[in-house]
Design goal:
Layout (H helix, E strand, L loop, with lengths): L1 E5 L5 E5 L2 H4 L10 H9 L6 H5 L10 E3 L6 H8 L4 E5 L2 H17 L1 H7 L2 E5 L2 H4 L7 E4 L14 H10 L5 H11 L3 E7 L13 E4 L3 E7 L2
Parallel strand pairs: 3-4, 3-6, 4-5, 6-7
Antiparallel strand pairs: 1-2, 7-9, 8-9
Helix pairs in contact: 5-6
The structure holds S-adenosylmethionine.
Family: Belongs to the methyltransferase superfamily. RsmJ family.
Function: Specifically methylates the guanosine in position 1516 of 16S rRNA.
EC number: 2.1.1.242
Length: 218
Amino acid sequence: MGRKSRTDNGEESVHIDQVEDQSEVLFCDFSGGAVGHRLRFGGGRGQDLPKAAGFTKGRTPSVVDATAGFGRDAFLLASLGAEVTLIERSPDVHAMLEEGMARAREADEKVAQIIARMTLLFGDAKEILPGLAPEVVIVDPMHPPRKTKALVKKEMRVLRSFVGADPDAEELMKVALSAAEKRVVLKWPAKADPLAGIRKPSHQIMGKSTRYDVFMVG
Ligand SMILES: C[S@@+](CC[C@H](N)C(=O)[O-])C[C@H]1O[C@@H](n2cnc3c(N)ncnc32)[C@H](O)[C@@H]1O
């Protein structure tokens, strides 16, 4: 996002309005890096997210990831055999995902099979979810600022510079709770206060830095 102006000597220059981390590009890579590593060495259905989403040895639910972001959670669940619909409302992030998925389809046969189970939608999940009747909804809004000084991972800082905070997370959770047929999983920082205005979770799965609040419905 740039704004043009004239310098003292009359030359045109471009000012970057949102300097923060927008100098960095949004990029998603489904076949290398952290995602590829998790695919090769991850703990399968024993990982916290699939457990929270109700994946068992014999059961693979259909999932809507209402907050797609980098698509990593969706990719993990699709790698375990689930059909996953991803919803993203930021045009920049949606474009990044679309490109990342297209690249991954070309890169590697195994990864392409996983991507084939992922359907990406553009828009606000609060409007789209009620028309989908999903078994399981995953909600992972931008997390509240940390109470500690621990630095947020760079890629999340870059993402935040594009999408900002998600102040309507409570509203999204309410829509998710009425749309899901089986359960809603809220991914939230382990030590953060519960999301205001939402009923208590049915149970929690606690990780080192992340927890999964599981809300059974129906
Ligand atoms: C923390 S990131 C999600 C990261 C994701 N779980 C992953 O594995 O990469 C949150 C994303 O959800 C998107 N988002 C938040 N609220 C949304 C809504 N109501 N509808 C669609 N997208 C939403 C934001 O634009 C942002 O890209």
